[in-house]
């Protein structure tokens, strides 16, 4: 509800600022941790299986969302609420429709690990903003959404900025040990496919959620539950033989666990942002996250900031703000763009907040 974010405070601080600070930290920490978990010294020959990490991520989200959803259900219904009356909300009705985005998001999560192991943190984070373009295209194609000239211009600028960053990255001949173990072309391909999947999954999810009754937490439980099936299938197809020989938790260490937890709890943080903040403030969070992760990469991961990178990042940040600039016509509302894989967790809240009000 409008203005609600300005009224809710925690420890005297408005929730919107707390949520955005958490999102900035989570975005930066997640990309840095994902990248480092794939290239960290001493683990080159003992890399964990990403398919197991994706499964654990979904299991953690499923557990947390189920507990919170059931608590919310009992608070709304009262002491008469029972688990047997809560379960039909999860597995009844049109819950089967969540199987499609669940499969897509599982593919996207696996591709994120591939990209994180083949691109520097800053390059990955900038390039991943292509999801704005893919989501916009699928919104026009599937939801028949109308985009004004300003938004098309911003998408053109966004593409140009990412192209500059990627061309500089592909042409780089850095001799650092970290860079020599990466394949920029593989990383870029993984990001590109992940962005396409993100756009399709986000728009489809929004289309399914509009006009439905289940709560945000119930939808999150459904999404995570249906994600388990493709997660297990991926394990069986790609890593089963290695897992049987080396073990499910082969290569795991505190950094890997931190990456899994950051990814699992990211959806909850994004849900707070949707509830208490607006797109402009979320753009500030994304922009600060890109800048922060780039600076950290310079000191910790031997990343070299070039003039082309600065220009590309500037164009991407400018395009992001330009895209979310309010249109003159009310009919152009509903342009919520998921920022990360985890924002599937807040799609229902996003759909509600962007739907035309009666």
Automatic annotation (TrEMBL):
GO annotation (BP), single: UDP-galactose transmembrane import into Golgi lumen
Membrane topology: Multi-pass membrane protein
Membrane spanning stretches: 17-36, 48-73, 119-142, 149-167, 187-205, 217-236, 256-277, 284-301, 307-324
Lineage: superkingdom: Eukaryota
Subcellular location: Membrane
One Gene Ontology term, aspect cellular component: Golgi membrane
Main location: membrane
GO molecular function list: UDP-galactose transmembrane transporter activity
Keywords: Membrane, Transmembrane, Transmembrane helix
Name of this chain's protein: UDP-galactose transporter Gms1
Organism of provenance: Schizosaccharomyces octosporus (strain yFS286)
